Amino acid sequence: MTALGLGLALIGVLVLLVLLGLQIAYALFAVAFAGIWLIRDNLGLAFRMLELTAYSGIADYLFATIPLFVLMGLLVSASNVGRDTFEVAEELLRRVVCGLGVATVAANTIFAAVTGVSIASAAVFTRVAVPEMTRHGYRPAFAAGTVAGSSVLGMLIPPSLLLIVYGILAEVSIGGMFIAGIVPGLMLAGGFVAMLVAVTLLFPRFVLTDPEASRLRRLDREAPPMPPGRMAAKLTPIALLVLLVLGGLYSGFFTPTEAGAVGAFGALVLALARRSLDRSKFWQVMKQTGVISVSILLLLIAASFYSRMLSIAGLPNAIAGLVTDSGFGPLGFMFFYVAIILLMGMILDSTSILLIMAPIAAPIAASLGIDLSHFGIVTVLAVEIGLLTPPFGISVFTVHNTLNDPEVSVEAIFAATLPFIAVMLAVLVIVALFPVTATLFL
Question: Where exactly are the transmembrane stretches of this chain (predicted)?
Answer without folding.
Answer: 58-76, 97-125, 235-253, 289-307, 327-346, 353-370, 376-400, 412-436
